[in-house]
Amino acid sequence: MTLEERVEALEKELQEMKDIEAIKELKGKYFRCLDGKMWDELETTLSPNIVTSYSNGKLVFHSPKEVTDYLKSSMPKEEISMHMGHTPEITIDSETTATGRWYLEDRLIFTDGKYKDVGINGGAFYTDKYEKIDGQWYILETGYVRIYEEHFMRDPKIHITMNMHK
Amino acid sequence: MTLEERVEALEKELQEMKDIEAIKELKGKYFRCLDGKMWDELETTLSPNIVTSYSNGKLVFHSPKEVTDYLKSSMPKEEISMHMGHTPEITIDSETTATGRWYLEDRLIFTDGKYKDVGINGGAFYTDKYEKIDGQWYILETGYVRIYEEHFMRDPKIHITMNMHK
To answer: How many CB atoms lie within 10 A of CB A62?
Structure first.
């Protein structure tokens, strides 16, 4: 390869590394906004063309607003949630599309209302599709397959000393 | 340095970044296949020269098949497992060898059989050696030192609503 071609190849590969990092940060922002219940900011992580399937594909949505409205209604302030993403496997499929696998651990705690003291723990394998529009990466598709999910009653004597949603 | 030398240095450094990312993805695939009980796919992450020590080095294996057979037998369908890897420290030792440290959190749930309702939680520091063969990274050595491990009886009233292994 000529020097010119080698520099061009470097530029392309460095762009891919930057895209992988940007996608990891996009997902970090998604989890942070989800558990921080920052719905408007969460919407900015979703592609206008989003197709989302939740709960093993039973629930499907077709716009950022539909997704955030669903999340907002299904994760009210009475519910503390933690979605912890691990060991991503990101593949750049083209200059504007990518695929990502994430190992998810999740934890839900109901602090009030009908489900007070209910706890839910689980794990899942996420598979996402991402799309780059005008230099910015967005979540285009997200869905997961549960490893397991368990529901239980928490000991009421557990004292929640801090809760950002109350 | 000449332009040629500068391009060469860039190529070398970018290759190291790509190798670090590839190793992180390799480990993500290993954990995903382990907990998804996808033994054939797990085998593809292991080097033909693998030397593995589990349980603080007491168990040692010398081929991918030996490792996956052991894992398959010791982690049957009655056992939900979650191995969550955190904060990797990857060092590229040479063009074809690397070392990786991982902070592991693990959770095991026995859903049936002799150990029904047993739970095991723990944490460990993993130290791995990786090997690159024909451009592909593999786990060459993996072993860990336990931070702690705890065994307990889970409340039978905990309701497992989803389990990919059942």
So the answer is: 11
Please report the domains of chain B, with CATH numbers, ordered by start residue.
3-153 (3.10.450.50)
Neighboring chain A residues of B32 at a CB cutoff of 8 Å: 87, 89, 101, 103, 125
pTM of the model: 0.94
Q: Which residues from chain B sit within 8 angstroms of residue A122, using beta carbons?
A: 162
The minimal CB distance from A3 to the residues B3, B17, B80 is found for: B3
Complex prediction ipTM: 0.94
C-alpha distance from residue A134 to each of A47, A93, A95, A139 (Å): 12, 17, 11, 14
The pLDDT tens digits of the residues spanning A107-149 come to 999 999 999 999 999 999 999 999 999 999 999 988 889 999 9
- CB spacing of B85 vs A84 below 8 angstroms: no
Going along chain A, which residue ranges are E strands?
46-54, 59-61, 79-94, 97-110, 118-133, 136-153
Angstrom distance (rounded) from CA B44 to CA A134: 37
Check B158 against A148: CB less than 8 A apart.
no
